[in-house]
Amino acid sequence: MRKVIVAATMAALSIPATLAVSAPAAAHDRHERRYHHTDNGIRYWRGDDGRYYCKKSNGTTGLLIGGVAGALVGRAIDTRGDRATGTILGAAAGALLGREVDRNNSRPRCR
After folding, report:
1. In 3-state terms, what secondary structure has residue 62?
2. How does pLDDT run across 61-102, given as a tens digit for each residue?
3. Signal peptide span per the entry (predicted)?
4. Distance, CA of 28 to CA of 32 (rounded, Å)
5. What is the arithmetic mean of pLDDT over 41-48?
6. What digits encode the pLDDT tens for the residues 100-111?
7. Where are the beta strands (DSSP E) in 1-109?
8. Counting runs of H as helices and runs of E as strands, what totals does the chain give?
């Protein structure tokens, strides 16, 4: 029984290792992009269809930071009871506000 478990463990460790060696080479060829920069530092690339595409933030960083900051502010404002309502409402409002700020600050204009 012990030999079967050792053999299964070795197979489980060796199969992903052989797949990981060949996967990045194929992914690199498929997703290789030649980035260009505008005068104000915005990265863009030309797609397979001939159109230009911009690298733009989706607001995730602002969403996370805004959610944490909003939760702390909401908890500080709500001083009655268990303060869960203020924390939840503050986190939601802060996340929405942080996401919009992050998206609006990184709006590139490349066409």
Report:
1. helix
2. 889 999 999 999 999 998 888 889 999 999 999 999 998 887
3. 1-19
4. 6
5. 77
6. 887 776 555 555
7. 36-37, 43-46, 52-54
8. 3, 3
Q: Which helix (H) or strand (E) holds 51?
A: none
Q: How many residues does the chain have?
A: 111
* pLDDT band at residue 16 using 50, 70 and 90 as cut-offs: low
Count CA atoms within 13 Å of residue 79 on its CB side. 1
93-110 exposure pattern, b = at least 16 Cβ within 10 A, e = fewer = bbbbbbbeebbeebeeee
**Residue 78 in tokens:** 């709500």
The residue among 45, 48, 25 whose CA lies nearest residue 37 is 45
Quote the CA–CA distance of 86 and 92 in Å, as a whole number.
10
